[in-house]
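Handoff note, outgoing to incoming analyst
You'll be picking up this chain. Sequence as last confirmed:
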Amino acid sequence: MSLYIHDRSDWPHFHWDHDRLAERLAGVRHEQGRLVGRMDALGFNLREEAVLRTLTKDVLKSSEIEGEHLDADQVRSSIARLLGMDIGGLKAGDRNVEGVVEMMLDATRHFDEAITAERLFAWHASLFPTGRSGMKRIRVGSWRNDATGPMQVVSGPIGRERVHFEAPAAKRLEGEMRSFLDWFNGSAESDWVVKAGLAHLWFVTIHPFDDGNGRIARAIADLALARSEQSSQRFYSMSAQIGQERVKYYETLEQTQKGTLDVTLWMDWFLGCLGRAIEGAQTTLGAVLAKSRFWQSLRDFTLNERQRHVLNRVLDDFDGKLTTSKWAKLAKCSQDTALRDLSVQGYSCEIAKGDVARAIELARLKKAERKKMSRPRTTHRTPKAGNQDSTLFLIRFARVDVIGCAGL
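Most recent structure output, in case you need it:
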């Protein structure tokens, strides 16, 4: 039988090579400060938009790591509603989405509150509102009891399973969780970035619940990172970055849990992952700034509320071409109304990806040329699908590569 770190006599006295991690830790804290400073320099509305994008990604990716795929529109709408943001076209979320969002927001918005067993039970209950994980009934809002056998992390087909890890027996959980919570709420480790990494490892090693341990471990880490910044506003997503590095994440976790209490390997990976998550936040920042500049460039154009709503969707997360049928569905209107929305002065268009700066410039040039050459007309031109009007020509390029337009 393999000896796991929780079986060792010196458990849970973690230690690591401070000299090896000092430079990486300093670099991460520096980048944290730079990112927070850049976000603070944004206006309130842009900062809110960045937070909404980050939290939406965080909730989606944290669930995806566990193999659960949530509806992005429901997640975004649920977060906006709970944050009191008006984004238009809110989509009602089901109980599972609402529960995941409530847990994540409680962790980050109330980062300065202590983590207690009751708070963890509430988080767990919000993740599993039906008392089931898939078709399997689980204990909700309480520690596991191992009634069906030891808690193991396994992979592979039935009959040829590979055991990656076995958690402490259920009879140890009260004492294990008491030690963990006393440490987390105490002052044994003063750097909350370091504490975030250790807490993630420690909690997921105890594995106190029947299911949802990974998501709750990431929520605890997010809470600790919020404390490190003294801010409830999240501008980067650790869950999204862990999702991108999922294989390395599980490899490093398994190697650490089967090793000694020297957790240098884990902490080195965690800090590196955090640094890459912060670096990835530049994409979010670029998207928010590009969206703001896009709307500023439209200030001379008259658009109705449906057009603005759909354009915001295109700028946020819409893929592919936007036809009148898709427009009608997004705007919740008829096909005829969709065609009128897409038709300006007798033309209609399809929306696809492209270069927003080039599109806006061409739209302005065409509009200026039309003004110069305009004169009274008595003829009527029937809208013809597929042509492009200068006013909505720029919409063709609304769904952009945010990295490419971050410097516009």
